[in-house]
Amino acid sequence: MFKNTRTALAVSLIGFVTVSSCVAPSAVSCPATSEPGPPPESAQSFASVVNKVLPAVVYIYVQTDKTDSEGNTASGVGSGVILRSDGWIITNKHVVDGFKEVEVTLYDRRKYSPTKVLMDDVADLAVLKIQEQGLPALSMGNPDSINVGDWVIAVGHALGISPSEGGPTVTEGIVSSLGRSFTMNDVPYYDLVQTSAAINPGNSGGALVNLSGEIIGVNSAGVISAQGIGYAIGVGTARHIFDDMVQYGKPRHPYLGVRILDLTAEAAHKLNMPLEGARVRYVEPGSPAEAAGLRTDDVIVSMGGMKMESAADVVKVLWRHEPGDSMSMVYLHRGLEVTKDLRLAERPQTDSI
To answer: Is the dihedral angle over the CA atoms 242, 235, 45, 17 positive or is it negative?
Structure first.
């Protein structure tokens, strides 16, 4: 399951519902989400925001290439969000991974078979294309304007309820934390928005929006053993991947060429360095990082003029740039500050970032 880079957590990708066995709350291990309290007086009702968002959230039914113990073809459902009026939709990779057939149902119950299903192997995101024009689409919010404590609304087909059965579920909460990161099955997840809005099975790929109705995250996971903790992939990461999928038909992740960890107090003491930044554990030969002089146990403290306090900060900055972009970097080598300019490459098939 998930492992937080600082603290162990029991986390589940609860948003994907297996149709044959997960259409009722008792069929899954789901968090019971506590209510964060009434909205401020200036937002006594979320109705206008919800009415704007609902038509852009779609229901995704998937038949996979997998079979269950009885030899039946496995199927499941999830959610997606229309981000362009000409039929481009974002969702989670785990919603459509291993698909054999995919069917998208709009809020008005029109059904489509996507002409494209594009998946990213680095982030848990996928992009679908349906042949239609004039669809209701959500705008993407500014990742730098998201603050802890902001009110947010999660919209998706919780518990696999289709449009004909009642449609999307709406829950509200606040932004509980930003920049969360953890690892599942040795795959790191970065730049996550933590929220108290309930995220239940079927919500995967749905929208986490602000009070302007802009998407600020793609709902992805909930914590089984806790109340009021869910995660969405931040819009800063989602925007980069979505735009690349639409333009190039694949994600183009920028590449630095390092493996990094948070700098712990123990490591900082051992290296005789201040407790800040991301510790370099490995540098890929021939990478931009090697060209910039980075070596094992150096500590990255600034990138692109932004202070780096953790490994997640480094990834967040990287994923908001494109291959070929230039940026400055400040790192500590044996306690000495080094400033270098580097040009990001395109990420090859590697475990490094």
So the answer is: positive
